[in-house]
Every structure is written in C-alpha cells, then in structure tokens.
Design a protein that fits this description.
2 helices, elongated, 2 domains, about 260 residues, mainly beta, Immunoglobulin-like, single chain, 16 strands, five-stranded mixed sheet
Amino acid sequence: MSTLGLRRIRIAVDTSKFNGPSDLLTGQSVKFWRSSDLQFELGLFYGAALLTNIAALQSLTLQIKPLGESGGAPDPATAPLMSATITTFNGALTSQQWADGTHQHAVVSFSGTASNIAAGKKWIVLTAVLISGAVVTLLAGECECAEDGYNSAGSAAVLDDTAWTKAESDARYPMVGMRCADWRPTITALTGGGASALDGIATAALSPGYLVALRIGGIPHWYVLEAGTAAEASPATIRPDDFALSTNEKIWTRYL
C-alpha cells in the first residue's frame, strides 16, 4: 500500500558505466523540489548484476554541486550545495527486494533545510571510500532542483549559487590583468584636498594596489595607489594630502 512520505529518489548505480543518474520511480533524470525532505535510495550494480558483496565499502558520500561555468561537471574545488556521508549499508539486499522497491543497499537523506538551495540544473556525484582507503566515483551527472514556490517561515536564506561573493569576484580580476576599482562618484577633481578631490582621500590605511575609479569633466579615470616618493605631476602622478616621508610614502598613479 502506498503512503505519503519523504520524496524518494531511487537510483540503480551501475558501477561499470559512466551513465548519468536516472530516477527509477519516475523514469526520468533526477529531480527534487527545493526545500523538501528527500531521500536517495541506492542500489549498487555491476552491469545488470546486483552487487551482493559490499564488505569492501567503508562509506558513501553524495553531493549536489552547482554546474561548471560552461555547464557540465564543476571544478573539483567547488564547494557542494548539499552533502551527506553514510557508513551503514544493507549487505543482505536481494534482487527481489530491490525490484519490489522495499529495500536498497543504502539510503542518503536530506532535510528540507539542507535542500533549500537555488532552483535550477545542478550536478550530482556519488563517491565511495573503500576499506583499502581507495576513493571511487560511482556516479556523476546532471540533476535538477525544482522551485515549488513554497518557503516556510524560518527557512534558511537562499544564496543563489550562480552569484559570486566579493572575494571570488575580486580574485578573478588579476587573471585578466585587471583590478577591482572602488567607484568614487563624489570626486570631481584631482587636487585641492577635501572629499571632492583625489588627493583628499586618506591613504594611511590603504594598501598599495588599491584602485579607484572617478569621473572628472565627464571623462572616466582610474588611479592606483603605489608605494613611492615621486613628486606630484598631475595628471599622471598625484600625491595624497596625507603623504609623509618614512610613514606614508604612497602616491596615486594614473592607471587608465
């Protein structure tokens, strides 16, 4: 008799192939509702044969990750959006029990809080650690987290995994020979001091390499703070008003 329960995803893991995962209960690719309790029911196979000896298995880890930048597999260093490791297995599973849908080698469960991730295409990967210490990938491929439109009070905030944090964004600029600029819309002059001039920016607490973007007379300019004692030669070199020999030897150099 069928009853209501956790969202079940039943996967026959063929360890002899590189096929993407499919859900035996739906006959489709793996898909689950965002912010819903769910469980992955795993049966381990080699081809069509059910694995009846899993004594060599120490642990299983199932992870859901964002897709790579161009789609497909993510960078191995990408942090998982969802992750669970189990060490308890059913080594007595029979082919009939698997076919009946009543038993499986392993169950990996996630709470609704854990599955409260941004909806969209994701990447699922299942790895095993053997008693020998070897790490084996058993399954990898696309899956999908579907938006159901429901969010209960107190649910964890959703951070869209397609967004970049400030640290991640800044880290990408040096890769293409650029720096991340601090936009200063209130600055309208290079010299003259005060809040409206470049030389009025306090630099004692700023590190060399700091880049500012400003607009003077409608023309955009970028200046980088560098260690140095060069004399002021506007507009190429600007000395900050808090420049001081031996204590704050920094100058602004036009970057673009």
